[in-house]
Amino acid sequence: MSPTPRDLGVGPDKARFVSEMFSRIAGRYDVMNGLMTFGMHHAWRRLAARQTIACPDGPALDLATGTGDLALELREIHPHRDIVAADFALGMLREARSKVRGLGAAERVRLVGADALALPFADRTFACVTSAFLLRNLADLRQGLVEMKRVTRPGGRVVALEITQTTLPGFRSLFRLYFHHLVPRIGGLVAGDREAYTYLPQSVDRFLTPAGLTGLMSEVGLRAVKVQRVGLGTVCIHTGVA
Question: Which range of residues forms the domain containing residue 149?
Fold first, then answer.
């Protein structure tokens, strides 16, 4: 029996569900991001990447890189850093590889398959670790944050771009109508995968509030944790210092 809308991506098989889902939609992922955010997702990634400007020397890691957009923003901001772009959805890595090669960025953006809960990197390897829309999808959020801090050098930054529930008066109900009802329909028509875009708003509903995530980041040892809301409060950029 296929999962009901109420239990998409819940339970012990969450990691497999997420990996298979993102591989299925990889070919239409960029198109859907542009449609859903009215093109604003590039600006949000740019803002997230700029949070790494003050990092110490060393390479950068972009987790759940998807089709590589945040990794490419890091490349623009840090022309002398090596960028490692990692994902555990092989379909996404294929799309990222095509994009990176097409832009002539393959020498500085290295694509690898990796699980965010068990990163194949030594302690204190990276000057910064970034992610865009990863945290909601982790089967173990605390373990993912622990791993991000572990591989970040002292003084480096952990930066996470994430969708959240808006609290803006008057806009909350309108956004919820759009996100929960219109987005799944668009996903069905454009990406051919209504289930993936039904899971999306559900995962936001189940996720921590910005204050809750800030608290958890502090609990795992990140310092000076802060959050910036963008997109009329629908998206947050969380930053912590290792």
Answer: 5-163+209-241
